[in-house]
Amino acid sequence: MIDRDQIRQQDLYLINDSFQNRKQYNIPKAQLVIADIPYNVGNNAYASSVRWYKDGDIKNGESEFANSQFFDTDKNFNLHEFFHFCSKLIKPEPKEKNKAGALIVFCAFEQQFELINLAKQFNFKNYIPLSFYKNYSPQVLKANMRIVGNTEYALLFYRDKLPKFNNNHKMIFNSMPYIKDNNIVKIHPTQKSTKVLKQLISLFTDVGDVVIDPCAGSGSTLIAAAELNRKAYGFEIKKEFVAKFNTMLKTNIQKNLFA
Ligand SMILES: C[S@@+](CC[C@H](N)C(=O)[O-])C[C@H]1O[C@@H](n2cnc3c(N)ncnc32)[C@H](O)[C@@H]1O
Q1: Confidence band, pLDDT 50/70/90 cuts, at residue 236
Q2: In ligand 1, which atom is closest to the CA atom of 221?
Q3: Residue 258, by phi and psi: left (phi above 0), alpha (psi -120 to 50) or beta?
Q4: How far is ligand 1, taken at its centre, from the CA of residue 14, in Å?
Q5: Distance from C-alpha of 63 to C-alpha of 87, rounded to nearest angstrom
Q6: 70 with 139: CB under 8 angstroms?
Q7: Which of ligand 1's atoms lies nearest the C-alpha of 241?
Q8: Residue (of 230, 92, 98) closest to 164 by Cα position
Q9: How far apart are CA 90 and CA 33, in angstroms?
Q10: What's the pTM?
């Protein structure tokens, strides 16, 4: 575990711009791109959250979150441009085995099939579905006598060669527990756990490798990567998330909250 002073010395950049403008920045090619893409959930962003109702109770009527979106960038996400970015920014396929780069996309269950089809056009011909099960569910509304979702979905894409894989020559199941961050600064409504991200980064990269998150939100991927001594670059178009990320790094909160 590195501390915040070391984090500062790392290559750790959250760029307040859209990933489409990548050419304006001198970003090295990545061993791993991790992206949690907008789910295009529009005004139903809180449909499966208790926050839809005042104080989380249906009896109190709807809250300000009912019929609202997470943020105004959570729609019209251009998947073509996203895959184009990934195809340019992941290191070219190496000759050796166990060195190839990879792309991990967190997405809604319904987005998976579109992503799998589109990925092929950008030479990401192969994929492995990943799922992360929580021991809680955000879908607690009207939950009596029905199944509620507790799973986060992701797809691991690769070109021809299997991605670099560091697990002491042991296999790993594609369904893994979702380990929550404790006492984390909440910057983003769909913030990912750095513990989950660290597990993935450890598996698919080595120390010194570059990790990029093109839709970085709170910068959780960058923090996870930096804590593992990887170089981390991210893009985020919303100023407020980038400002909060920068404040978090600056104000020493980092060390305790990500330890
Ligand atoms: C699902 S959230 C990512 C949350 C992030 N994984 C976290 O842990 O905080 C997707 C983010 O992508 C951002 N975004 C959408 N379009 C973008 C673009 N073209 N370039 C950069 N960021 C973008 C949104 O503003 C949003 O914060």
Answers
A1: very high
A2: 8
A3: alpha
A4: 11
A5: 42
A6: no
A7: 27
A8: 98
A9: 7
A10: 0.86
Which has the higher per-residue pLDDT, 81 or 250? 81
Q: Where do the CATH 3.40.50.150 domains begin and end in the chain?
A: 4-40+76-258
Residue 100 to residue 33: CA distance in whole angstroms = 12
Amino acid 144: pLDDT: 62
Share the mean pLDDT of the chain. 86
Closest C-alpha residue for ligand 1 atom 4: 217
CA of 26 to the centre of ligand 1 (A): 20
CA of 70 to the centre of ligand 1 (A): 11
Cα-to-centroid distance, 188 and ligand 1 (Å): 9
The residue type of 100 is A
Q: Whose CA is nearest to atom 23 of ligand 1?
A: 215
CA of 139 from ligand 1 middle (Å) equals 22
Is 70 exceeded by the pLDDT of residue 8?
no
pLDDT, one tens digit per residue, over 51-108 is 666 777 767 777 766 665 666 666 689 999 999 999 999 999 999 999 999 999 999 9
Which amino acid residue places its CA nearest to atom 6 of ligand 1? 36
Most informative mutation of 152, 215, 223 for ligand 1 (most atoms within 8 A of CB): 215
Nearest ligand 1 atom, CA 19: 20
Structure tokens at 183: 């006492």
Which one of 3.40.1130.10, 3.40.30.10, 3.30.390.50, 3.40.50.150 gives the CATH number of domain 4-40+76-258?
3.40.50.150
The tens digit of pLDDT for each residue in 192-214 reads 999 999 999 999 999 999 999 99
